[in-house]
Amino acid sequence: IRIQDILDKVQSVRPDADLAMLQRAYIFSASHHSGQVRLSGEPYLSHPLEVAYILADLRMDDATIAAGLLHDTLEDTKATREELTSMFGAAVTGIVEGVSKISQIHFESKEEAQAENIRKMIMAMAEDIRVLVVKLADRVHNMRTLQFQKPHKQMLIAQETMDIYVPLANRLGLHRIKLELEDLSFMYLKPDIYSQLTDWLERNHSSDQAYIEKVADELQKMLSDNKIKGEIRGRLKHKYSIYRKLIAQGLSVDQVHDVIAFRILVDKVKHCYAVLGLAHAQWR
Ligand code: MN
Question: Is 76 one of the catalytic residues?
Fold first, then answer.
């Protein structure tokens, strides 16, 4: 990801965005992180760029995306709060400070009650909800690059992600983030079951994408025949949701049948029920 990718993305959704401010945040971050490297061997700057891109993709505002570029500067570089405030204002600085504060909490306990307390504490600390969104984007990129950590750290971070950040993403309605964090954590926490499930999906469901497209076309035709406007999305269910179902129903992998899910978004509640009726009539 380059800064230009972020600027392009932002401009495509918000033509009036403050691109000059984002550009300045990039330069500030680049100069302060200069010389630092990630465990992957990449320049450190690749991390804030990825985080800012995730935020741009979520269509967050300029302050949040700038904070994504700057989120590790207070903690990991010589940058000061005063510098940030004078260059980017109180909102951006507040978000960066909030993210740094959350990073300083240490999660040790694995107990469920404790996890709930930690989630509450994080919610309370993030008085500006944008702090939490940046923290979640940060965690997504750290989970995507978790293979570069030592094995015992991988387990700790994956467990913390599953216990703390997945429920927080869910609470905020950041569904895509939640699903990605869940599947990545699952891969590290239960590697055997994860790879078994992956092999099985590849053996039995590799042709599903074509099937999903075919059914989506049929659904689209059903909608237009009935003069209903709607948007159709079909997908393979995520691995962790299949796994959860296996556990809940005591099934083995080859007993799972519903690995495909469709979602139809319509503009009126009455259309919602009409479409459900039509779908039931066509697929018993
Ligand atoms: Mn970070």
Answer: yes
Provide the whole-model pTM.
0.86
**Given 76, 83, 183, 208, which residue is catalytic?**
76
Distance CA 88, CA 78 (A): 16
Q: On the CB side of 211, how many CA atoms lie within 13 Å of its CA?
A: 11
Q: If you measure from the C-alpha of residue 114 to the centroid of ligand 1, how many angstroms do you get, rounded to a whole number?
A: 24
> What is the CA(23)–ligand 1 centre distance, in A?
19
Q: Quick: pLDDT tens for 152-179.
A: 999 999 999 999 999 999 999 999 999 9
Tell me the CA–centroid distance for residue 123 and ligand 1, in Å.
18
Give residue-wise pLDDT tens across range 2-18. Answer: 999 999 999 999 999 99
Q: Choosing from 18, 75, 183, 208, which is the catalytic residue?
A: 75
Residues 181-201 have pLDDT tens digits of 999 999 999 999 999 999 988
For residues 122 and 14, the answer to whether their CB atoms sit within 8 Å is no
Bridge pairing between strands 260-266 and 230-236: antiparallel
Distance 49 CA to ligand 1 centre (A): 10
